């Protein structure tokens, strides 16, 4: 098995939780994909970085991140996976709101102004979280080249409607789940 198959197994074994839940979008579901159980796992996190870099290998960007908390471990995994290659990437964190103290930055990490960046998210149903990050990145002067998620729960149309390319490492069908 390769990285993609190995990561899918971690997702199905660790992250898919069955039971009635209300998603952040307000939609009710009979299962939840808790990808933090995978993105913060010692064996799975390196796979996350490699799979997401492979997914976006033909896109030109030099920094990756998104809205905290779902995007943070993805960006860090990609940063570490890319570090020894000829295409290293920086990572950044987009706060849900600007800080009221210190430097009052909404985007933490290396400056994104004038840079080509990739917005990431662990899983997305409506695209709301990742599009919030995209808006903040654009306000900070970044050129957002696309959006990539680990698991797509249906956000692709909304992201594409916002004028951005969209990719997912896995669909619900890939994981044996139905919407």
From TrEMBL:
Instruction: Tell me what reaction this enzyme catalyses.
Output: orotidine 5'-phosphate + diphosphate = orotate + 5-phospho-alpha-D-ribose 1-diphosphate
Q: Which residues bind orotate?
A: 125, 153
The residues the record assigns to binding 5-phospho-alpha-D-ribose 1-diphosphate are: 95-96, 99, 101, 121-129
- According to the UniProt entry, what is the EC number of this protein? 2.4.2.10
| Signal peptide interval | none
What keywords would UniProt list here? Glycosyltransferase, Magnesium, Pyrimidine biosynthesis, Transferase
Among InterPro entries, the record links this protein to: OPRT, Or_phspho_trans_dom, PRTase-like, PRTase_dom
Q: In which pathway does it act?
A: Pyrimidine metabolism; UMP biosynthesis via de novo pathway; UMP from orotate: step 1/2
Q: Which domain of life is it from?
A: Bacteria
Cofactor(s) needed, names only, are: Mg(2+)
* A GO MF term: magnesium ion binding
Q: Which GO terms describe its biological process?
A: 'de novo' UMP biosynthetic process; pyrimidine nucleobase biosynthetic process
Question: What family name appears in the similarity comment?
Answer: Belongs to the purine/pyrimidine phosphoribosyltransferase family. PyrE subfamily.
- Tell me, what does this protein do in biology? Catalyzes the transfer of a ribosyl phosphate group from 5-phosphoribose 1-diphosphate to orotate, leading to the formation of orotidine monophosphate (OMP).
Tell me how this protein assembles. Homodimer.
Protein name per the record? Orotate phosphoribosyltransferase
């Amino acid at each position: 098995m390769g990285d993609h198959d190995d990561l899918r197994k971690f997702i199905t074994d660790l992250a898919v939780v069955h039971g009635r839940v209300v998603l952040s979008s307000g939609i009710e579901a009979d299962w939840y994909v808790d990808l933090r159980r995978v993105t913060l796992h010692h064996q799975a996190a390196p796979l996350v970085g490699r799979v997401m870099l492979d997914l976006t290998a033909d896109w030109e960007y030099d920094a990756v991140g998104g809205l905290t908390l779902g995007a943070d471990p993805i960006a860090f995994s990609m940063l570490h996976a890319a570090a020894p290659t000829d295409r290293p990437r920086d990572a950044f964190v987009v706060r849900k709101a600007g800080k009221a103290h210190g430097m009052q930055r909404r985007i933490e990490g290396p400056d994104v102004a004038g840079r080509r960046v990739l917005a990431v998210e662990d899983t997305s149903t409506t695209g709301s979280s990742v599009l919030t990050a995209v808006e903040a990145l654009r306000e900070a002067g970044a050129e957002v080249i696309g959006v990539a998620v680990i698991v797509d729960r249906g956000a692709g149309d909304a992201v594409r409607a916002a004028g951005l390319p969209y990719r997912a490492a896995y669909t619900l069908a890939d994981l044996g789940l139905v919407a």
